[in-house]
Write a structure and sequence with these properties.
CATH superfamily of the largest domain: P-loop containing nucleotide triphosphate hydrolases
Number of domains: 2
Structural class: alpha/beta
Oligomer: single chain
CATH class of the largest domain: Alpha Beta
Strand content: 15-25%
Mean pLDDT: 77
Number of helices: 11
Pfam families: cobW, CobW_C
Helix content: 25-40%
Bound molecules: guanosine-5'-triphosphate
Catalytic activity: GTP + H2O = GDP + phosphate + H(+)
Organism: Streptomyces albus
Protein name: GTP-binding protein
Low-confidence stretches: 1-6, 68-75, 219-223, 225-237, 340-355
Distance between the termini: 54 Å
Number of strands: 12
CATH topology of the largest domain: Rossmann fold
Family: Belongs to the SIMIBI class G3E GTPase family. ZNG1 subfamily.
CATH architecture of the largest domain: 3-Layer(aba) Sandwich
């Protein structure tokens, strides 16, 4: 199968969804690496107001469009998406569009775009909604949902994303036992009886299972979600779940940062759905990429800083009841004296994860 084949002359579109940290960007990178030479446009939508995901997608010839609107695609940005798709259509060659939705997004309105806008519908074909599921953390959300607590947290979003999928990829199976993966797969099957389900580590899926599958089935989508094609779906998001973005000039001290992240994870782990950052660490000539969820985090090397480029750190945290002032103070306390930021930092707040 050639994944770049257009469907009836239309450009195929894959919508990647899945809760925060499930592995969507990892899958985008897997696809871009494997599909080298194809013209793939990637549209990124982030929950935070400072874009980070675009920096995490591997550098390539592909074009990456950001939709960092501080909200999610499902709320306000459908017209932005339509504008981007219109502009893309004028390109010489385009083999595929990948839309990576924010982990908080409801995929339904995104999918609707390909049916309700005539111009988009004439030129693009929704190939599949692919939902990534975090093998390690999804169970907690499903438990909450089954206990009737779906509206008290993100569980309903996780369940909506699963229900709406054409393909489900249970990712991060390295973090659980085979029995746990099997049990989770059974639970997913009860929510969505028809989506193909595969498992992966680091989203290294067989691309035949997620691309060029023409899996999107309007009739089934409409039963999975009765709000389908209703212009105003009236969905809502838990107002306690917010995104806090912090941007600081200068360098951070690695040890101070690691200690702060450990304190933060210990104090706020259950409520801390996601941390992502591109950071400047003192004495390091490459960017540091921070990835974390709940209590877990990892730091890895990113692209080098160019000579003369201003060194700065961007951090996005998504979670329940986050305190922006404390988070800012906590990160600011990790800056090195050379940046001049320490002298001006707010006094310690006394909070366990504060400065
Ligand atoms: N152990 C393990 N880690 C993984 C796997 N897949 C992805 N990760 C890591 O999990 C973290 C989150 O992965 P992403 O691909 O950024 O997840 P995402 O769904 O794009 O996250 P958001 O954009 O925040 O919604 C990163 O640190 C990845 O390296 C996996 O299969 N196993």
């Amino acid at each position: 199968m050639t994944h770049s084949d257009t469907a009836h002359g239309k450009i195929p579109v894959t919508v990647l969804t899945g809760f925060l940290g499930a592995g969507k960007t990892t899958l985008v990178n897997h696809i871009l690496t494997a599909q080298h030479g194809r013209r793939i446009a990637v549209i990124e939508n982030e929950f935070g107001d400072i874009p980070v995901d675009n920096a995490l997608v591997i550098s390539s010839d592909e074009e990456i469009f950001e939709m960092a609107n501080g909200c999610c695609l499902c709320c306000t940005a459908r017209s932005d998406l339509i504008d981007i798709l219109r502009r893309l259509r004028t390109r010489d060659r385009l083999d595929r569009v990948l839309i990576e939705t924010s982990g908080m997004a409801d995929p339904n309105p995104i999918a609707q775009t390909f049916f309700v806008d005539d111009e988009v519908a004439a030129h693009y074909a929704l190939d599949a909604v692919v939902t990534l599921v975090d093998a390690r953390h999804a169970g907690v959300h499903l438990d909450a949902y089954e206990a009737g607590l779906g509206h008290a947290g993100p569980a309903h979003q996780v369940v909506d994303q699963i229900a709406f999928a054409d393909r489900i990829v249970v990712n991060k199976t390295d973090l659980v036992t085979p029995e746990e993966t099997e049990a989770l797969t059974g639970r997913l099957r009860r929510i969505n009886a028809t989506a193909g389900i595969s498992t992966s580590r680091h989203a290294a899926v067989d691309l035949d299972t997620v691309l060029g599958v023409a899996a999107f089935d309007l009739a089934r989508a409409s039963t999975a979600d009765r709000r389908w094609l209703e212009e105003d779906s009236g969905h809502w998001h838990d107002p306690d779940i917010t995104s806090v973005s912090v941007e600081l000039a200068g360098d951070l001290d690695r040890t101070a940062l690691e200690e702060w992240l450990a304190r933060l994870g210990a104090a706020r782990g259950p409520d801390l759905y996601r941390i992502k950052g591109i950071l400047a660490l003192a004495g390091e000539d490459r960017r540091c990429v921070l990835q974390g969820l709940h209590r877990l985090h990892e730091l890895s090397e990113g692209a080098p800083w160019q000579r003369g480029e201003p060194r700065r750190s961007r951090l996005v945290l998504i979670g329940r009841g986050l305190d922006r002032a404390e988070l800012e103070a906590g990160l600011r306390a990790c800056t090195t004296p050379a940046t001049g930021a320490v002298a001006g930092r707010p006094a310690a707040s006394g909070a366990p994860y504060g400065a």
